[in-house]
Amino acid sequence: MINWRSVNKMDNCILEVSNMSTGYGTKSVLENVNLCLEKGEMLFIIGQNGSGKSTLLKTISGNIALKQGDIRINGELINELEMYKMTEYGISYFIQGGLIMPELTVEEHLLLSSKVKKNPSSIDETFYEFPNLKNLKNKLAGNLSGGERQMLSFGMLFLQETNLWFLDEPTSGLAPKFVDFTIDYLKEKMKKE
Questions:
Q1: Dist CA 25 CA 178 (whole Å)
Q2: Over the stretch 161-190, which tens digit does the pLDDT of each residue have?
Q3: pTM higher than 0.90 for the full model?
Q4: Residue 98 dihedral angles phi and psi, to the nearest 5°
Q5: DSSP letters spanning the chain
Q6: Is the confidence at residue 191, as pLDDT, over 80?
């Protein structure tokens, strides 16, 4: 059982999970999970491989069916959320290792992400936020380093204009300078929220 805050103190939650149980097929992975995340907070889920961290995020984001319990965003029940509708609720999901299509350029990735909000001009804002991406815009994503892919993934999240990010091991496998970049970027984003 996971509890983050008392269930009785969940009035100000932007994300609320109540008595959630989930798993794969007949295999149960998480049981009776309760959590509340308030605006401006960061919540870190720490545990060994196979302990259910990714399963938690996948269930909340609609990638795995909920077996029991409720999930609410700003008080609205989203138990049946489909992944492609996540941004409508202000949610973005960073899959471990990033979601990169090797045959597309950096700019093509950003164009696809900008269509989520139908705002292609925001690509310029993304280049302002991540100046190194502008220099890489014609490069195939499959030829990027791990850190460059990370930056591209954050650029894609930035374009979605969401305020609740689920990040699944965002520093996994990165060189130290890109771990620092990731931490610094997330700190700055929190200050702006």
A1: 37
A2: 888 888 888 877 778 888 888 888 888 877
A3: no
A4: 80, 160
A5: -EEES-GGG-TTEEEEEEEEEEEETTEEEEEEEEEEEETT--------TTSSHHHHHHHHTTSS-EEEEEEEETTEE-TT--GGGGGGGTEEEE-TT----TTSBHHHHHHHHHHHHT-TTHHHHHHHHSHHHHHTTTSBGGGS-HHHHHHHHHHHHHHTT-SEEEESSTTTT--HHHHHHHHHHHHHHHHH-
A6: no
